[in-house]
Write a structure and sequence with these properties.
Layout: E1 2-5, H1 11-22, H2 28-37, E2 43-47, E3 53-66, E4 69-81, H3 90-105, E5 109-112, H4 117-121, E6 126-137, E7 150-154, H5 159-170, H6 181-188, E8 194-199, E9 205-214, E10 217-225, H7 228-239, E11 247-253, H8 258-261, E12 268-279, H9 282-288, E13 298-305, E14 314-320, E15 326-330, H10 333-337, E16 342-345, H11 346-353, H12 359-364, E17 369-370, H13 373-381
Parallel strand pairs: 4-5, 10-11, 13-16
Antiparallel strand pairs: 1-2, 2-3, 3-4, 5-12, 6-11, 6-12, 7-8, 8-9, 9-10, 13-14, 14-15, 16-17
Domain N-acetyltransferase: 1-142
GO molecular function: aminoglycoside N-acetyltransferase activity
Protein name: GNAT family N-acetyltransferase
Length: 394
């Protein structure tokens, strides 16, 4: 089996595999449009001895917000295998090569949308993003409230304005994407619908809603608000559609407080497990990660296991400065053998540092072993709390 990046002449095979695996059919016009945007260097394939494509995945060069800081991220997407090639290790080899590539590219974290959480947990990924979906009858919408600003519809969406609002909003979470201009053009605004922006009394844009009305349903496709007045103003704007629609649907961050703020909080709510993440290079990630400051320099011994990225395996001393800088010092020989301390796999480290899961909980449920309660508490004090969210899909 050969693992390599795709070439221009692999387009037909890759397209056929994707259409089969994800059950869609491109028109001739759509296929030619897709050919123009085909970037073979982002696609990796497993080929048999005759050069036939067996399996493939897409490795997207993206960035994600983590603790208010942007991290280079490898987005895994479009994983597909022909039925006759399944259970032959194709995806295993592709993912291992992808991890090596991400490490070499300085992408210290990876994210994906799983077809199966249990499948990707075997490769070190862990669920980090959950979302809430609301279905709200118009009679249950927030009351229309006068605000000092105003909402203006954008006949032609201004990406610079929208991205300024989005970046301020998205950076408050961990797991959200850093959106580039082409992402807005090709992933967001192609959905169709209306864009409306809330401007405060000084004509500064503080929030937007991107929505579509179809039948008697208003669907909010993208929302960002950076102040309470913009949140109220945008919901008032949505409420002004009450004569046209019977329900409003939207997807929000898991910590969204809307039900608490409603006069009738008995709206339909669904919690949706969404995306998984994985630390690719623990040493580089820890160095970049913004830890909580402390009273003094502290150290925690941590033994990591990673079945598919061997560079993460081993015993480390996690050094945390008083100012919030961290580094992993690898322990060798006798020091490693007698290190003690906390022990966990790469999934659990990801859950702690990206997924907002507390070390005390992870130790209680058996995901962390060894060490002491104080070791876990010390680590917990130095990990900032930040809700995860992701408004995009790939």
């Amino acid at each position: 089996m050969e693992i390599r990046q795709l070439r221009e002449d692999d387009f037909e095979e890759r397209t056929a595999l994707s259409q089969f695996a994800f059950q869609y059919r491109l028109t001739p016009e759509q296929k030619e449009s897709k050919r123009l945007t085909f970037r073979p260097e982002q696609d990796w394939g497993a080929f048999d001895e005759n050069g036939r494509l067996l399996s493939a995945l897409l490795l997207l060069p993206l960035e994600t917000w983590i603790q208010g800081k942007s991290f280079a991220m490898g987005g895994i997407a479009g994983v597909a295998t022909w039925p006759e090639a399944r259970r032959q290790g194709c995806v295993n080899q592709l993912l291992v090569r992808a991890l090596e590539t991400m490490k070499n590219n300085g992408q210290t974290v990876s994210m994906l949308h799983p077809f199966s959480f249990s499948f990707y947990r075997r490769y070190g990924y862990e669920m980090t993003v959950e979302r809430k979906k609301y279905t709200i009858e118009t009679r249950q919408l927030p009351p229309r409230t006068q605000t000092p600003g105003q909402v203006k519809r954008m006949a032609k969406p201004d990406i610079e304005v929208l991205n300024g609002i989005y970046s301020a909003y998205a950076s408050r979470y961990s797991g959200t994407l850093v959106r580039e201009k082409d992402w807005w053009e090709n992933r967001i605004l192609t959905k169709g619908g209306q864009v409306a922006v809330y401007y405060n009394e000084h004509d500064v844009a503080e929030g937007y809603v991107f929505y579509q009305v179809e039948g008697n349903m208003l669907t909010i496709q993208d929302w960002a608000s950076t102040s309470e007045t913009s949140r109220v103003g945008l919901w008032t704007f949505v409420g002004n559609h009450d004569s046209m629609v019977a329900e409003v649907t939207t997807i929000t961050a898991i910590d969204d407080p809307l039900p608490f703020l409603l006069a009738d909080p008995r709206i339909k709510q669904e919690v949706i497990p969404y995306f998984m993440s994985r630390i690719v290079d623990a040493e580089a990630f820890v160095k970049q990660y913004p830890w909580m400051p402390g009273e003094r320099e502290e150290a925690v011994v941590l033994t990591l296991s990673d079945a598919h990225a061997p560079w993460n395996n081993g015993a480390f001393r996690l050094m945390l400065s008083a100012s919030g800088e961290g580094r992993l010092e690898r322990l060798e020989g006798i020091a490693a053998e007698s290190s003690g301390g906390l022990k966990c796999d790469i999934q659990t480290l990801t859950a702690m540092l990206i997924g907002n899961r507390k070390p005390s909980l992870l130790r209680e449920v058996g995901r962390i072993s060894g060490g002491s309660t104080e070791d876990a508490a010390q680590l917990e004090r130095r990990i900032p709390e930040r809700t995860t969210h992701l408004m995009d899909f790939f």
